[in-house]
């Protein structure tokens, strides 16, 4: 059996197993005429608008905070240009507006207190005279007749109301000033600004027939 086994040879008629696995290759057609290039660009962010919104938000929370924020923007702008010194008056003006805001609030507060004090004095005197005809309670205003007492009471009451409206006016001016100053920090005012004046025609709606254009001058600013 060993001799028979050794005497066997490999059958060459059998087909060898195919170990190479092939996959069909799909042809890819490149047609650049039907494909558009990716034109997605990064959205532009206006730094002036962003700074203006931040200034408004700060001024609405605390009056004067927007002006302090603008002073910070000014310092960053000057440091970016290498101007660490100078512009003293510009910084002083920016910070001085904070003092003006709170100085205005202080003056209005003192005026309101004084108006309410005098209003209560004349109101009390008017009420006393209404209950006691012909008599006067406060010797300091005894020289005023009944009509003058009532008029003074109305004047001081109106002054108190005006002061209250003035509070809102100062508050609104504080917000508007902070917004405008923040926008101006990013406004280009360098020497590259130029303008051009050229003749042009504008439409005249008053003319019904024929040529309705009127000669004019066109001003173009470039900065």
Automatic annotation (TrEMBL):
The residues covered by the DUF5683 domain are: 51-223
Question: Which Pfam families does this entry report, sorted A to Z?
Answer: DUF5683 (PF18935)
InterPro entries membership: DUF5683 (IPR043738)
Q: What is this protein called?
A: DUF5683 domain-containing protein
């Amino acid at each position: 059996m060993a001799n028979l086994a050794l005497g066997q040879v490999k059958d060459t008629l059998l087909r060898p197993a195919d170990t190479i696995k092939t996959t069909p290759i799909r042809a890819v057609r490149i047609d650049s005429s039907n494909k558009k290039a990716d034109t997605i660009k990064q959205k532009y962010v206006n730094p002036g608008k962003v700074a203006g919104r931040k200034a408004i938000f700060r001024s609405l929370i605390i009056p004067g905070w927007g002006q302090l924020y603008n002073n910070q923007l000014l310092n960053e702008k000057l440091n970016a240009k290498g101007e660490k010194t100078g512009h003293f008056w510009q910084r002083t003006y920016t910070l001085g507006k904070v003092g003006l805001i709170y100085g205005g609030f202080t003056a209005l507060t003192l005026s309101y207190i004084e108006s309410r004090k005098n209003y209560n004095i004349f109101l009390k005197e008017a009420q006393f005279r209404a209950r006691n005809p012909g008599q006067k309670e406060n010797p300091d205003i005894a020289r005023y007749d009944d009509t003058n007492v009532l008029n003074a009471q109305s004047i001081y009451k109106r002054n108190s109301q005006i002061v209250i409206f003035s509070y809102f006016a100062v508050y609104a001016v504080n917000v508007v000033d902070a917004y405008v100053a923040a926008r101006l920090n990013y406004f280009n005012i360098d020497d590259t600004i130029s303008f051009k004046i050229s003749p042009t025609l504008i439409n005249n709606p008053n003319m019904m027939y024929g040529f309705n254009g009127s000669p004019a001058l066109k001003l173009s600013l470039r900065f």
